[in-house]
Amino acid sequence: MSKKATDVDVSEANLSRDPLIGRQLGDYRLTSLLATGGMARIYKGMDYKLQRQAAVKVLIQDEASSDPTLTKRFQREARAVAALEHDNIITIYQSNEQDGIYFIAMKFVKGKDLAQELKQLRRRSNKKMDIKRAMKIMEQVASALDYAHSQDVIHRDIKPSNILMDDNDKALITDFGLVLRASAETTMGTAFGTPRYIAPEQAISSNKAVPQSDIYSLAVIMYEILVGETPFTGDSPMEIALSHISDPPPPPRTLNSSIPEVVEEELLKALSKEPEKRHRTAMEFVNAIKRGYGLLDDGRSWASSSMNASAKAVPAVSDTAPTSKGDEGKSKKQKKAKSAKQSDKKKEKSGGIPRFLLLIVLLAVVAGGAFFVLNGLGGSGGGASITLIYNTEAFTMINGGDYTLNVNALQFVRGIPDSGGDDYNGYRITQDMVPAGQCVRIIWSGKQVELPPQCDGKVHYSEQLVTPAKFFWRKETDTDAVISTFAVLYEGREIARCDTVERGGDAECRFNWPVAPTPEATS
Prior knowledge:
Elements: H1 3-9, H2 12-17, E1 24-25, E2 28-36, E3 40-47, E4 52-59, H3 61-66, H4 69-82, E5 92-98, E6 101-107, E7 111-113, H5 114-123, H6 131-150, E8 153-154, E9 163-166, E10 171-173, E11 180-181, H7 200-204, H8 211-227, H9 237-246, H10 261-270, H11 282-292, H12 307-312, H13 325-328, H14 332-349, H15 355-368, H16 371-374, E12 385-391, E13 394-399, E14 405-406, E15 410-414, E16 423-425, E17 433-434, E18 439-444, E19 459-465, E20 485-490, E21 493-499, E22 506-512, H17 519-522
Parallel strand pairs: 18-19
Antiparallel strand pairs: 1-2, 2-3, 3-4, 4-6, 5-6, 7-9, 8-11, 9-10, 12-13, 12-22, 13-18, 14-17, 15-16, 15-20, 20-21
Helix pairs in contact: 6-8, 6-11, 10-11
């Protein structure tokens, strides 16, 4: 945009309406008002040196004067977002205080927010968003949330108007004004979120927010996309908040019968009153919805929770949706037994193993469907043939046997077991079965990774993770140590040791699963 074109906005009429229009804040000259919120106004700004537009968020001075915590919260937002580097989180250009005015200059997104999109759809004879498009948007948001959670950042105000979409449907989370650093901070002030999207625990006390609070809000948005309205409405914010705390959400299929039953189950799980009963990560929730709509059949997943995010999530109580009719046929008794087994194992092993690493295993295995255990349910002569193919950006496990493998007892350890190395366990995996001949994959989020030819059309599950320093198959770690091998363990016994890869490298590792298939596994 040229300076001449921008000057059209900075007219005498604009100046009379808003004295900040035409004002220089930092590197940006404010040219027009974009939006007004509870404690801030958003202006369009122009950096003439770099010829770059920005959205400049300015703290309303009257609000700041009446509530001194607002300036602290405003500054905290700038620090929190500036520290987050993710493709789906708004970029901060500059933040400062000038002549008593606090401002944050952010990337200017040409497009609209999700709230505007949903409103337009409702106006068109209550039309619903195409499910594939909706999942593309939700995957991006989930990836950003899981990354933020991995950095100890809880957003606490996830809602459609805080999800910006550019002209290519790239989603960006913005407005971290209520952000909380779970490990070190407490809530400032009385603001606690937006009533229609707030999690029950957060409605009770804002500083009780956990990563699953953001997942609850994401589930409310998913509910709204599928049904056309949020689960709870009321005549006042307090009435709506109380409904989140005490009322069960209306089953979505009563409002939209085309929603698959398994999708309804996952939505209601994510809307549980207790955080620990929800999905562990945002991507686990989104993938469960995708699975319910049959959108994971090609083995692709836009983005999954980061490995570190796993550590911050609260373990789920119930399993995610099954991926096949056979899985759907599992009896409640089997699921209950599995849940008890997972709980027992967690108690036995959680003491010395970093929580996020355990969850990653789980995610990785879910993603892989069971790469750990694939090898273990082998046939005669030592079990199924397992092939691991991995490089800097992806890890693939191939079940070369002729029966389904259960990854529940599988474990990967970078370095030497019991030495404090990176540890990824299978017993907390939601989806623990990998069919014969199928592949499971872990992929570095945002990377385009070529599929091994053996897996063409045979990817059972794929997850994208964020932090490469936590990839157990790589030499480098997050402590700058270099580790040359990782161990594959089954029921605590080492069954294989594989070389790790350095940056830019690739490798294969082959071994046989150590046990023969049981009648249940082969049926």
